[in-house]
């Protein structure tokens, strides 16, 4: 028996995927096997926690024999695009378990009482065999019950969720991800073994993320400093856009990356003047600071100040 009293389940196929009775749309998406193109780039403190979880799962039989459970209920909090969903995929890949993802749009029925039934159907399906269940946008179904703006239906939904969390078996992993941890019901927080806060990457982590890009090391370092404050998803979109522009305009990739990075920096209010970006572009193209100063009618110290402000040089 498992620590929560449920029997160890086999590894046979899932029962048929549950659907919403009215729309006939699937309530959960199943991905098996999970295969990522590359290992996600994670902050060291996050990687250490996830590695510790995987170490426990590597000895799951020993733990269960002693009436102990591996870390199997994880809550990921943080801004959008910071790697929460990707980390869940990576865990499923490393555990060699199917990944089930809650289809929130389908689960949240407009009919009173139906959302709770849909959620219960998802959990009943997930516990039919070992898996990783991802509950993305978790705050939509786990909002604090003292929120006076919500109808009783959502409060009842939290009660259904709490019971499902209490019944979650120890030989499957549940990962809940939210952009708004402050909205979660306090009782929900207490159900999780591990809580991880995902933050926007700093420059060294962005540099690591860009490691496989066909750009020089010096440019990669400068680009990472410009992109500091962006999410991984925003950086991925920027890289994709730059690659397409370079291909269609028959230009080098580095200038395209830099132009988009400068635009990103400006739009986030991290670049004081558009002229600063033009100076930086000339600098990265190999012009001397005196040449840049002469081109824009600025002093050499002014150009040096701009370069130091954004690139730390």
UniProtKB/TrEMBL annotation:
InterPro entries, sorted: AAA+_ATPase, AAA_ATPase_domain, ATPase_AAA_core, P-loop_NTPase
GO molecular function, a single term: ATP hydrolysis activity
Highest taxon of source: Bacteria
Coiled-coil stretches: none
CDD domains found in the cross-reference section: RecA-like_protease
Pfam families in UniProt: AAA, HTH_23
Domain called AAA+ ATPase: residue spans: 70-202
Name of the protein in question: AAA family ATPase
